[in-house]
Amino acid sequence: MSTAPRFVVTGASGQLGRLVVTALARHAGASSVAAVVRDPARAASLFPEGVAIRKGDYEQPETLAPAFAGAERLLLISSNALGARVPQHRNAIEAAKQVGIKRIAYTSVLHADISKLRLAEEHRQTEKLIEVSGLDHSLLRNGWYTENYTASIAPALQHGAFIGSAGEGRISSAARLDYAEAAAAALIGDEAPRVVHELAGDVSYTLTEFAAELSRQSGKQIPYVNLPEAEYRAALVGAGLPEGLANLIADSDAAAAGGALFDQSRTLSRLIGRPTTPFGTTIAEVLKAA
To answer: pTM (2 decimals)?
Structure first.
């Protein structure tokens, strides 16, 4: 006799989703987890054995209710379709209500209600949709992934400088795995009708300090060069990034200069039951893999 999975994770084939599914399988058992992906055939090798793989696409609402059917708790991982997130998320929330999901956890952004990050607006709108849905919910307000900055290590080593627009703003980032484990913990353990988790790394740093640690570990002098937001955006576009993504990164750095990525609550480490991953550890992993 088969039992329907208790937990369902959208966007499960993404970098965060894969880690969440693995954490859920470890803590709750693989058979209790369903991974929702756009192309199940291509995702078969991504998850632990025993995890159910279901087809679901935010842009195809008719696929979502069947993908969620039978589950009690849904992790709605925010779409990466900037500008189209709100209607996509609305599709998922409506499907969750339709099939009787009892709790939604949503990956929002740090201090979404007051954040100056441009990307926070779509998160605020999604949080409102969840609030008015009447479903119990957990808002996972994720701070920055350290990987957002370690992704720039290769060009920094190539050009001899780490560039950005964050000034001396302090950034409380954590590794993607930390946030994944927090999502699993909240999905399994949260019981109150509404829970808000402001999630960020235990230790903050400036990009000057980040560049200094990169210099120490790489044995090369890699200074941090702070650029005006417009110049940083232009540099990102010049490096081949799509204009929309370049705008988002530059805006986020500029907001970080004003403290938008800083938090010292240590909610994340309490939720996962261990200290968050130091940024130097993530730098070391990237350098080792290079």
So the answer is: 0.96
